[in-house]
Amino acid sequence: MPTEFAATALLFLLLSGAAPAAAQAPAKVLVFDLELVDTSREPSDPDHAGRLERVTALLRDGLKDGGYEVTGVRDSAVATEVPASLYRCNGCELDLGRRAGADIVVTGFIHKISTLILNMQIIMRRTGDGEVIAVANADIRGDNERSWRRGVDWLLRHRLLAAPPSDR
């Protein structure tokens, strides 16, 4: 009799939708360092390298807070294989992501047109089929820490994490 009751209760839970859903593991994301593409013909800013590191860390932290399992490329198994520029590597990030065990790769760059006009682009792609999950673009004003951070933060909130992780 107790077995009959348990089976009936389980059937009721399944049919009513009250049974707990199976926990889904978060997607494994490999985040490559953001790059600077400078076509401004202005003198280079010595803080650009440090600023790129800081906004890349902001991107990684934001994706982690958004429900992803995040690894920075420098902490991955493929760290020594990353070319100097992904911007021109013709999709090599997908192969690197697969070998690092990632489900998704994230790349991006900041295009400096002038000290006032910059464009930021961040792309998320599935490693299995190369499908683009998100392309996030923002024009930012000002070649400074504040505008770069605000650009990454805005793209995270309004483009990259606008849907829950299970829907991505």
In a nutshell, what does this entry contain?
The protein is an alpha/beta fold. It has helices at 2-16, 48-65, 92-99, 145-160, and strands spanning 28-31, 35-38, 69-72, 104-112, 117-126, 132-141.
Descriptive terms for the model:
Rossmann fold; 168 residues; 24% strand; six-stranded mixed sheet; alpha/beta
Main sheet: strands, sense, barrel: 6 strands, mixed
Number of domains: 1
Between the first and last Cα atoms, what is the distance in angstroms? 45 Å
CATH superfamily: ABC-type transport auxiliary lipoprotein component
Radius of gyration: 21 Å
Structural class: alpha/beta
Strand portion: 15-25%
| Uncertain spans | 5-22
How would you characterize this protein structure?
With 168 residues, this protein is an alpha/beta fold. The chain has a single domain (24-162), classed as Rossmann fold (3-Layer(aba) Sandwich), CATH 3.40.50. The protein has helices spanning 2-16, 48-65, 92-99, 145-160; strands at 28-31, 35-38, 69-72, 104-112, 117-126, 132-141. Strands 1, 2, 3, 4, 5 and 6 form a 6-stranded mixed sheet that branches. A hairpin with a 4-residue loop joins strand 4 (104-112) and strand 5 (117-126). The radius of gyration is 21 Å and the shape is globular. It starts with a helix and ends in an 8-residue tail after the last helix. Residues 5-22 have low confidence and may be disordered.
Question: Could you give the topology of this structure?
Answer:
Blueprint: H1 2-16, E1 28-31, E2 35-38, H2 48-65, E3 69-72, H3 92-99, E4 104-112, E5 117-126, E6 132-141, H4 145-160
Parallel strand pairs: 1-3, 1-4, 2-4
Antiparallel strand pairs: 4-5, 5-6
